[in-house]
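Hello again, I could really use a second opinion on something today. I've been puzzling over a protein and I'd love to understand its fold better. I'm sending you its amino acid sequence along with the C-alpha cells. It would help a lot if you went through both lines with me. I've dropped the whole record in just underneath, so have a look.
***
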Amino acid sequence: MVGALAAGLLCAAGLAAPAAAAPAAPAAPAPAEGLALTPPMGFNNWNSTHCRAEFDEAMVKGIADIFVEKGLKDAGYEYVNLDDCWALPSRDANGKLVPDPVRFPNGIKAVADYVHSKGLKIGIYTSAGTKTCNTAGFPGSLGHEYSDAQQFADWGVDYLKYDNCNNQGVDAKLRYTTMRDALRATGRPIVYSICEWGENKPWEWAADVGQLWRTTGDISDNWGSMLSILKQNLPLAPHAGPGRWNDPDMLEVGNGGMTDTEYRSHFSMWAIMAAPLLIGSDLRSAGEETFEILGNREVIAVDQDPLGKQGTVISSQSGRWVVAKEMRDGSRAVALFNESGTAQRITTSADAVGLPAADAYALRDLWQHRSYNTAGTISATVPAHGTVLLRVAADPKSVQHPPAVELGLNGSPLVEAGKKTALTSTVTDLGRTTAKRVSVSLTGPSGWSVKATSPTTSPALSTGRSLRTQWAVTAPQGTPPGSYGLTLKASYRSPSGVRVDSALPLTATVAVAPPSGTSALGDLAWLSAANGWGPVERNTSNGESDAGDGNPITIGGVVYGTGLGVHADSAVEYYAGGACEAVTVQVGVDDEEGADGTVAFEIWADGTRAASTGVLTNAMPAQALTADVTGAQVIRLVVTDGGDGVTSDHGDWAEARLTC
C-alpha cells in the first residue's frame, strides 16, 4: 500500500542491529534455494477488505477451507496471506509485535497452525518503515528487523510482504537487504515479497534480495488501473525468472469493478507475464464465474511453467496486443489482448511468436478448452477488453484436430435507432485442413431486424479462404442509447466429419447523433470511459477513487467551469456520426496534486491521431488544443502518463467543446 511518510526518529545507524540478547547477525548466507521457483499463488485480503472489521481469524480460516473445498489448493494456490491491520498499534514492553486480540483472539501462531493443517502456507505483512501504510499507525519493522523476523518464524510464517511506507528516506536497498538477512538468520524458509512500488527499480538489484518485487503502485478494481499496471510491467520481462518475479500487484478478479470479460483478460495477462497469482476477492461470497476464472488450470499452467519466462510483447498497434511466452516444452502461450472498447481482429503467426517452421501447428484455446490445427496464422476477432489465450506448438499430428476458423465482423457496430446499418461477417479457415459444410448466422436483440443480403453457406473453405456475408441491421425507432448484444455463429465440419460450432459475442452500440452547433463535452453522453483511478468526472477534476469526489477544474491557478477530470491512463469516446468538425479544449495537469503529475493528451478521430501535446507537468499553464475531426464516427480523448508512471497523473480536459 502506498501511503504518506509518518514522522519518527530512528536510531543513529538508521537500521536495526539484533537485540542485545540475541546473537550477532551472521554474515549474509547464500541465497535461499528452492523458494518461489514458480510465481507464488495464493490469497491476500487487502483488495477486498482493506482494514475493515471483516478481516479477522474467521476470514483467514474460511479462505483456507475454501482453497481445499473448491479445488484451488489442487490447482496450485498455496499461500493465505494477511495484509495490514493484523497487529495492535503499539509493541509490547519487550518490543514485540502484538496481534490484535479482537481480530485474532488466538494469536497468529494458532491461525498459522490451522492453515498448515490444511496443507497450505501462511503469509504476513509489515513495512520497511517506522509504521505500516494504514493511517492507524501500526508498527513497521524498520529498526526491528531481526526481532520481527524471528517472531514471524516462531509463528510459522511462510511468506512476508514488506511494504514501503514511512521509510524515513533510508536507502531502499539497505532497508530491504537488512530484512532479507534477518529472515535468513531465522533459518526458516520464508518467501520474501518486496513491496516498494517499483520506485527504485528493484528488478535491477533485488534478484538476490527477495523472490518477487512490486513493479508499480497499487492496483484498483477498474479497467484503467489494471491496464496501466499491465503496460508498466510488460517491458520488464528480461528481469523475471525462477525465484525472481516481477509483481504487478494482486488480482482483482471477483471484486465487482470489472466485467467477467475484463477479469478474464486480467487473469490471462497476469498468467502470461508469469506474475504472482494472489487472489484479492473474498471467496466466501464469490460467484461461480469467479471460481471458474481463478480455477482455470490451463491458464494457471501458463503462469506456472517451470521455464519461468515472462511473456514478451510481439506487437501492440492501436491497442491490439500480441504477447508470447516461451514454455518449457517448446510451445508458446500467445495472448491476443484487445485494449480497445470495440471488437478488434488481432493476428500474428507461428513464426512471429518464435515457433519453428512446420506444415501444421496445434492450437489450443485455453478458455474454450478446444484444440484445432492451423497452417501458421494465429488470429481471432477479440471482443472489447477481451483476451484470447492460446497455446501453440509445431505438431504434424495436429491435423487430426478440426481446422481453426476465425469469425469476424467488418463495419461499425455503432447504429442509430431506426436507421439501417450495413455489416459484413467473415468466416475464414486458418487451418491446414478444409472446413466443410460451413454456415453462418447473426442474431440481435428481440425486435431488431437482422437480415442477410448475401449467401450464408459454403460447401467448403480451404486454407485462407473466407465466407463473406452481408447483413442489414436495424434497431427499432425509439431504442434507448446503450450497448446491445449481437451474436455471430458459425458451424462447420472437419474432414473427418466432426462438427464444430463457434460463437463470437459482439456489441452493437445505439448512439444518438450529437446536436448541431457547439456543445460542452462534459454534458454529452459518451460511448465509453476508462480511467486510471476512480471514474471519469464531468465538469470537475478527477478527485480520488469515488464518483463525484472531484474539485473545480483548476490548471495553473485558473478555474474552469466545464470539462472532464481524468487520471492517466484514460480514454473517453464520443459518437460523432460523421457530422462534426472540431474539438477545442484547454488541457493540463490539475492543481489538486500539488507539484506532482506528468501527462500527455491525444485526440483521435476514428483511427487517426488528430491532435496531441507533449508531456505536460503541473508547473505548466493550460495548453490550447484543437483537433479537426471532420467525418469521424468516433472521437477519442486519451490521456497517457508522462513516462514516469501514473502516480498523481490527474489530467483535465477543461472547457472541452465539440462543434458539429
Summary: The radius of gyration is 27 Å. Residues 1-14, 16-31 have pLDDT under 50 and may be disordered. Residues 128 and 176 are 7 Å apart (CA to CA).
